[in-house]
Amino acid sequence: MDPAVERFLLDSIDTVPHLEALLLLFQSPTTAWTVAALAARIYVQEKQANGILEDLTRRSLIARNEQNPPQYQYLPRSPEQSALLDRVAQTYRTQLVQLTRFIHSNASGSVRDFARAFRLKDKD
Fold first, then answer.
1. 72 phi and psi, to 5 degrees?
2. Domains along the sequence of the chain with CATH
3. Where are the beta strands (DSSP E) in 16-106?
4. Cα-based distances in Å from 74 to 2, 41, 62
5. Please, which contacts does 86-95 make with residues 24 or more away whose CB atoms are closer than 8 Å?
6. Rounded to 5 degrees, what are φ and ψ at 33?
7. Mutual angle of helices 79-94 and 96-105, in 10-degree steps
8. CB 62 within 8 A of CB 75
9. Which pTM was predicted?
10. What is the pLDDT along the chain (124 residues), one digit of tens a residue?
11. Taking the mean position of all CA atoms in its chain, how far away is CA 73?
12. Does residue 56 contact residue 28 with C-beta atoms inside 8 Å?
């Protein structure tokens, strides 16, 4: 697997549903998704979908529109981010089993968040 894709998955993706949600929003950038619509599309409960969307928003991978109910869309931060997500999407299409095993084999999201806090602190 592409090392840049691996690094992105390690740094930004906690679960396969996180990746599926991000790729869905990335591949339909003109669509604003509600929690309910996303939950139905990726086959998770609304509570889980809400957590996923909030995680992705906090990591600046997607944006929340302050509608009622809130809606979420992919808004690229840079051409580099979009190019990387193109590679992630390609890997998802061509190496699904390897990619999902990679995500499942990594530490839990809370452990990674804890580690991220220290990396961010070290950069200051």
1. -125, 140
2. 3-117 (1.10.10.10)
3. 63-65, 71-73
4. 23, 16, 5
5. 87/2, 87/4, 87/5, 88/5, 88/8, 88/9, 88/19, 88/23, 89/23, 89/26, 89/27, 91/1, 91/2, 91/5, 92/19, 92/23, 95/1
6. -105, 135
7. 110
8. yes
9. 0.84
10. 899 999 999 999 999 999 999 999 999 999 999 999 999 999 999 999 999 999 999 999 999 998 889 999 998 889 999 999 999 999 999 999 999 999 988 855 555 555 555 555 444 4
11. 12
12. no
Give the E-state strand segments of 56-96 in sequence order: 63-65, 71-73
Beta bridge partners of 65: 71
Paired residues of 72 in beta bridges: 33, 64
Tokens 């061509």 correspond to 94
